[in-house]
């Protein structure tokens, strides 16, 4: 089997992204399953290499087609060449991180890489650099012209996809509409199929405590979620729910479903962090390209120290390879 | 001076007779667990207890008494035979108004026994909310029912305990969209006070508490929700002024990991599922529910009547045992204080 070329954006240079990217490239599983290409400035990687004890040759390449084994192949846009500090919000770092993503997306859209794996961004640095996106997901959606997408988290035996993410809890309730829930059920079905499960069993969580207990506390289940589930069943999907939010994850861990549809950010993130604090993977589902990501931030407290754990990055590469193989 | 502390007297109502309650109690009693931690008085119909023993396949001696006075007075495993339900008419795994009234009446009788000084606390087998409602006990949850029976109108609520970590929430069984407007400095502060008081009563002398944020990522400096800035931070400030140790607000997706590592004794959550998801995932078979703010300790396993497995004798007793041991510990503290 030919190994897919996987692009890894190294994230904000001021955080742990460059370090965990280099660390992941000495992982046997990563090296044997794909041909990795880093997207990041050469100068940034040369600075990070001794910190993590990386002795492999760092080679800037013109494009992913030039990637070779046994060395670190880097697509270097040359944005950040001067000095920068670790663990500090800097506009130039935000701009650099954005440039890496832009280039990787463009290469993925052109079919030059099979997937993009992203290192952690700092939102404030993006904004300080004049890049007005609220995060990776929005950048990918915008640059690929995608309207319907959702955040999928995987780890520790749990897959959970979100109806809404970074909005206030009050607003999250308004976002749980029949239309959006149905869209996310469809995305869930597609994503799990893309992982090689032919008939995904989808469990949809309720929004309210005990799923509202027949309307006793909350009507969203009756008015929005159940109609969405019925519509999805009408389309032939295997959907159960609404399942009370506090038991749906216990059940999925027992193997009763392949994916959970969560109604809001913390409903999906609380269980995922408990089942897999270190190795969680974040996937943007619905894009025309494959994008997976580490499930943590820039971890400024560890930047420049070489101590950051790369397991989430390794898991993200593993997931990207898996999606790429089933494409 | 009394050297050996007296064991507390705990009532053990069988709960909803159509559920797994009677078999759980039978299994636990047969293992000698009830007598180890307290002086137990099982409360219910003797025919129902015997059915539970048959299902569990456990035979053990007990002293059957027709009044609570008699049951609570003697030594050994006692049953207060309420004569309230004929096991022959019982249909396992179904909601019934007859069972609902019976389980509600027995609980009310236990609270009456606590108030009369005959009992030091209660650990009840699972109730069925739908049955209770049909049986005339139409309360949002058992906590409101108990408070009502005590004549208490505020300062009570549900707490959940797992692996020594206590969770209390500001809001409970309300629509999620109403949560934000129910998060006020006063309601948060009241919750902290109740949690603190209950933890102290359970033997934690200087509770360290952590508060969960309401919004994702703790609101990210107000960009996805302002309640952290407008309500939670002022509430924490006020709590600190009252001498409580409360840290936060912390993003709720990572808070529980640190809390389970032992960094905190209690976690204050904003809504039902914020804590329930974490706790049930971490240890479904050891979760205990405590009715906080009442004059006597009242505990129960966090799981329900499990109608789907009632009568099969396969239920696990671990959560019930944890609930019973906790009630015993809290009751012992109360006795020592008196």
UniProtKB/TrEMBL annotation, chain A:
A molecular function GO annotation: oxidoreductase activity
InterPro entries noted in UniProt: PdxA_fam
NAD recorded as keyword: yes
Keyword NAD included in the entry's annotation: yes
Pfam families: PdxA
EC number: 1.1.1.408
Keywords: Metal-binding, NAD, Oxidoreductase
PANTHER family listed in its UniProt record: 4-HYDROXYTHREONINE-4-PHOSPHATE DEHYDROGENASE, D-THREONATE 4-PHOSPHATE DEHYDROGENASE
Protein name per Swiss-Prot or TrEMBL: D-threonate 4-phosphate dehydrogenase
Biological source species: bioreactor metagenome
């Amino acid at each position: 089997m030919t190994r897919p070329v996987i692009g890894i954006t190294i994230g904000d240079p001021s955080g742990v992204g460059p370090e965990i990217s280099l660390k992941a490239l000495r992982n046997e599983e990563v090296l044997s399953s794909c041909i990795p290409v880093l997207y990041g400035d050469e100068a940034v990687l040369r600075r990070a290499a001794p910190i993590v004890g990386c002795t492999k040759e760092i080679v800037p390449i013109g494009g992913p087609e030039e990637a070779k084994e046994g060395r670190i192949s880097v697509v270097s846009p040359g944005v950040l060449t001067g000095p920068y500090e670790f663990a500090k919000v800097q506009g130039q770092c935000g701009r650099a991180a954005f440039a890496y993503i832009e280039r990787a997306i463009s290469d993925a859209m052109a079919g030059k890489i099979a997937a993009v794996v992203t290192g952690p961004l700092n939102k404030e640095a993006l904004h300080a650099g004049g890049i007005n996106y609220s995060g990776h997901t929005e950048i990918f959606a915008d640059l690929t012209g995608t309207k319907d997408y959702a955040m999928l988290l995987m780890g520790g035996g749990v897959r959970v996809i979100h109806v809404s993410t970074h909005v206030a809890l009050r607003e999250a309730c308004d976002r749980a509409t029949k239309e959006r829930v149905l869209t996310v059920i469809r995305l869930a079905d597609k994503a799990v199929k893309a992982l090689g499960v032919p008939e995904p069993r989808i469990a949809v969580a309720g929004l309210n405590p005990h799923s509202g207990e027949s309307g006793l506390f909350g009507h969203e289940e009756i008015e929005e979620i159940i109609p969405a589930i019925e519509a999805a069943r009408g389309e032939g999907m295997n959907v159960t729910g609404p399942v009370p939010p506090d038991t749906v994850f216990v059940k999925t861990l027992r193997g009763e479903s392949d994916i959970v549809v969560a109604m809001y950010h913390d409903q999906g993130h609380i269980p995922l962090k408990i089942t897999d604090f270190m190795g969680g993977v974040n996937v943007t589902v619905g894009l025309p390209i494959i994008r997976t990501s580490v499930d943590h931030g820039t971890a400024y407290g560890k930047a420049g120290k070489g101590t950051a754990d790369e397991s989430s990055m390794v898991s993200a590469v593993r997931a990207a390879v898996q999606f790429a193989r089933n494409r | 001076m009394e050297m050996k502390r007296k064991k507390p007297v705990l009532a053990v109502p069988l709960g909803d007779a159509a559920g797994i309650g009677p078999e759980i109690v039978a299994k636990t009693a047969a293992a000698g667990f009830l007598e180890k931690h307290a002086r137990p008085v099982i409360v219910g119909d003797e025919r129902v207890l015997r059915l539970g023993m048959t299902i569990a396949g456990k035979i053990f001696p007990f002293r059957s008494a027709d009044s609570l006075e008699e049951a609570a007075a003697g030594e050994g495993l006692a049953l207060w035979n309420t004569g309230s339900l004929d096991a022959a008419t019982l249909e396992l795994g179904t909601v019934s108004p007859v069972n609902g009234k019976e389980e509600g009446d027995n609980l009310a009788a236990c609270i009456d026994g606590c108030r009369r000084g005959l009992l030091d606390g209660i650990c009840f087998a699972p109730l069925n909310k739908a049955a209770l409602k049909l049986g005339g006990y139409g309360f949002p949850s058992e906590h409101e029912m108990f408070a009502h029976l005590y004549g208490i109108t505020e300062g009570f609520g549900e707490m959940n305990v797992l692996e020594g970590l206590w969770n209390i929430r500001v809001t409970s069984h309300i629509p999620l969209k109403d949560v934000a407007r129910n998060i006020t400095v006063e309601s948060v502060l009241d919750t902290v006070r109740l949690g603190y008081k209950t933890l102290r009563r359970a033997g934690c002398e200087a509770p360290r508490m952590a508060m969960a944020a309401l919004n994702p990522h703790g609101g990210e400096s107000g960009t996805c929700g302002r309640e952290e800035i407008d309500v939670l931070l002022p509430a924490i400030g006020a709590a600190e002024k009252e001498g409580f140790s409360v840290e936060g607000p912390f993003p709720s997706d990572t808070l529980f990991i640190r809390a389970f590592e032992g960094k905190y004794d209690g976690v204050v959550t904003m809504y039902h599922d914020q804590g329930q998801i974490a706790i049930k995932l971490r240890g479904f078979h050891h979760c205990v529910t405590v009715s906080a703010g009442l004059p006597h300790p009242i505990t129960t396993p966090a799981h329900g009547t499990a109608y789907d497995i009632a009568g099969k004798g396969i239920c696990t007793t671990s959560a019930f045992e944890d609930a019973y041991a906790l009630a015993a510990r809290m009751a012992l503290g109360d006795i020592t204080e008196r």
